[in-house]
């Protein structure tokens, strides 16, 4: 009896262990089944979510008004840079023109192109221009820091002789220092050739605005174009980094807008534009203007400046303008500018509408930009390159850089540029601010105003 009881107990115990093991196994299998079923549902949901998102994005792109990206009409115009059959290169082997190129990047570029033309008219050898290191920007860059010096010389070798520096035997000779009259025509410079009778070297103290824009002989105009758009290529470091940043922008979006946002402290101070600023900021700009000797205009009525269309658009106004034209909030915007006055406080009025706004500092590494520190003209050259390559270029103010980029984009195939009608916009902005316009009416008025701009 006792043995049978022990045997029964052992059998029952084995059965109990087996049942528990089986139960645990079945529970495990059931749990894994539920887990895989659940994760499958999650994966399917995520896949559906991605497909829906991609579909919405595709629909958004399809519904987007492509007219805001369309290039301008050429109206049959095309670049004309080749010389005519009558054109002859300048010889000028024993006459030398030295130049001090003044102003910011784009003043220097146009001034250098003008001096190429002047040297040709005066039949002189042009010495590579010296750049202004005492301007407002205090930039110590040399010609070769900003431009490809060898390319410049080689590209124009069929037009005139260009050398990097005066020969030693010529450098010690007295020079005729000349401030050529602004906006002078070819006849004026033909008269100036009389200076060669007494001097071998003429030094031009300023390059900006020395040559007339209109009524120049065809071959001289074409020479200026060759100098500007073919010869004045930026230095290899600038070209490399500019190309790299454009490629980064292209990986972020199919298309991008380059916005030349003129809202730096010096710009606002010079123009006397204080709309949208605090009293303290307006006073700071006034003091800066008063303390800058070469800014001739001292007392400026900010309200009259704005009504007359002489003020750059504020970041807020730029955001409203872009929205009214039909650019969606997802638009990638490259901001070509220096330090925005007021920092993020003012910039956020734009980025709240267009969060995909970037500066070069957000695209390049600190190592990339290390060599550009404290060189305003080299930084401006980067902005210039990226703006020229953009799908759309929009300047908030029509300064030298805005006009230079617009011209270059026309030369390269009439790439789309939208120049805001600042005078016309002031009235519309003020009506919107006063609550006299709703969003749809505002957009209609802005679009109509810029239909042919």
Automatic annotation (TrEMBL):
Q: Name the domain of life this protein comes from.
A: Eukaryota
User: Which CDD domains does the record associate with it?
Assistant: O-FucT_plant
Q: Which UniProt keywords apply?
A: Carbohydrate metabolism, Fucose metabolism, Glycoprotein, Glycosyltransferase, Membrane, Signal-anchor, Transferase, Transmembrane, Transmembrane helix
Stored InterPro entries: FucosylTrfase_pln, GDP-Fuc_O-FucTrfase
User: What topology does the record note for this protein and the membrane?
Assistant: Single-pass type II membrane protein
Q: Where are the transmembrane segments?
A: 20-38
List the Gene Ontology MF annotations in alphabetical order: glycosyltransferase activity
Q: In which pathway does it act?
A: Glycan metabolism
The record's subcellular location field reads: Membrane
State the Gene Ontology BP annotations.
Answer: fucose metabolic process
Name any GO cellular component annotation.
membrane
Protein family:
Belongs to the glycosyltransferase GT106 family.
PANTHER family, alphabetically?
Answer: O-FUCOSYLTRANSFERASE 38 (PTHR31741:SF15), OS02G0726500 PROTEIN-RELATED (PTHR31741)
Q: Which protein is depicted? A: O-fucosyltransferase family protein
């Amino acid at each position: 009896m006792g043995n049978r009881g022990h045997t029964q107990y052992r059998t029952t115990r084995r059965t109990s262990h087996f049942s528990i093991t089986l139960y645990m196994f079945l529970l495990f299998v059931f749990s894994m089944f539920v887990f895989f079923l659940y994760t499958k549902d999650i994966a399917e949901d995520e896949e559906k979510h991605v497909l829906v998102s991609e579909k919405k994005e595709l629909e958004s792109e399809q519904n987007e008004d492509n007219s805001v990206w369309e290039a301008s009409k050429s109206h049959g115009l095309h670049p004309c840079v080749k010389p005519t059959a009558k054109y002859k290169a300048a010889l000028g082997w024993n006459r030398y023109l030295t130049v001090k190129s003044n102003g910011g990047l784009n003043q220097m570029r146009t001034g250098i192109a003008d001096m190429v033309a002047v040297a040709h008219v005066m039949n002189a050898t042009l010495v590579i221009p010296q750049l202004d290191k005492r301007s407002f920007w205090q930039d110590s860059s040399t010609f070769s820091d900003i431009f490809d010096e060898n390319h410049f010389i080689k590209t124009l070798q069929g037009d005139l002789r260009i050398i990097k520096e005066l020969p030693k035997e010529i450098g010690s000779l007295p020079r005729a220092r000349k401030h050529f009259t602004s906006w002078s025509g070819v006849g004026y410079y033909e008269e100036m050739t009389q200076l060669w009778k007494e001097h071998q070297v003429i030094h031009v103290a300023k390059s900006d605005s020395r040559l007339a824009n209109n009524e120049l002989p065809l071959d001289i105009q074409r020479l200026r174009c060759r100098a500007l758009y073919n010869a004045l290529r930026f230095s290899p470091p600038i070209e490399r980094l500019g190309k790299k940043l454009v490629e980064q922008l292209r990986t972020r979006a199919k298309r991008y807008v380059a916005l030349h946002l003129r809202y730096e402290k010096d710009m606002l101070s010079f123009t006397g534009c204080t709309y949208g600023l605090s009293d303290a900021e307006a006073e700071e700009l006034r003091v800066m203007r008063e303390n800058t000797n070469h800014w001739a205009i001292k007392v400026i009525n900010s309200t009259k400046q704005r009504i007359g269309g002489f003020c750059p658009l504020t970041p807020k106004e730029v955001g409203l303008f872009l929205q009214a034209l039909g650019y969606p909030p997802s638009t990638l915007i490259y901001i070509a500018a220096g330090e925005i006055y007021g920092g993020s406080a003012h910039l956020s009025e734009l980025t709240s509408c267009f969060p995909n706004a970037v500066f070069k500092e957000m695209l390049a590494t600190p190592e990339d930009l290390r060599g550009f520190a404290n060189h305003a003209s080299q930084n401006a050259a980067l902005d210039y390159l990226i703006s020229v390559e953009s799908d759309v270029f929009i300047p908030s103010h029509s300064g030298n850089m805005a006009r230079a980029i617009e011209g270059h984009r026309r030369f390269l195939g009439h790439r789309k540029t939208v120049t805001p009608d600042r005078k016309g916009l002031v009235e519309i902005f003020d009506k919107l601010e006063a609550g006299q316009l709703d969003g749809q009416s505002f957009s209609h008025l802005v679009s109509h105003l810029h239909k042919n701009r």
